[in-house]
Design goal:
Elements (H helix, E strand, L loop, with lengths): L4 H6 L7 E4 L3 E5 L9 E5 L11 H20 L6 E5 L15 E6 L18 H12 L5
Antiparallel strand pairs: 1-2, 2-3, 3-5, 4-5
Length: 141
């Protein structure tokens, strides 16, 4: 895709701080550096988001995440954890529409935050079951 900033980075048209590359993925430092070492892992094949992956691409891309994550973690003894994030769609905060996985190293006082809201009180057995049934009915095995 010619207008895609990540495709341009992969093709060397835009400079990046490359961390890792092979025939399937290209990993580079996120320019924002939400925390030091914040890395993006992108498939070389242009897919907009997780919904466009086939099983083979998913297996190939996600198989590389632990190797890259271990290298990021090993690069700095102050890293005490890591968030692995994948945003899909504008509502989920995806801002570049070429699928990418964020590796966000965590430090003792890094000020990065995420909020997970607990809506458990709004659910009863019937509501959980309705959501479960709606999702499970989508599997066509």
């Amino acid at each position: 895709m010619t207008d895609c900033i990540f495709c341009k980075i992969i093709n060397g048209e835009i400079p990046s701080y490359k961390i890792y590359e092979d025939d399937v993925v290209y990993a580079f430092l996120d320019i924002s550096q939400a925390t030091p070492g914040h890395t993006l892992v992108v498939p070389k094949k242009h897919v907009k988001d997780i919904f466009e992956y086939d099983e083979d691409l998913a297996a190939a891309v996600f198989a590389r995440i632990p190797k890259i994550a271990r290298a990021v973690k090993a690069s700095n003894s102050e890293i005490i954890g890591m968030n692995i994030l994948n945003n899909n769609g504008k509502a989920a905060y995806q801002s570049v529409f070429h699928s990418h996985i964020h590796l966000l190293p965590r430090y003792a006082d890094d000020k990065f935050s995420m909020t997970f809201i607990n809506n458990e009180e709004e659910y009863d057995e019937a509501k959980y079951k309705a959501v479960q049934d709606a999702i499970r009915s989508q599997f066509k095995d």
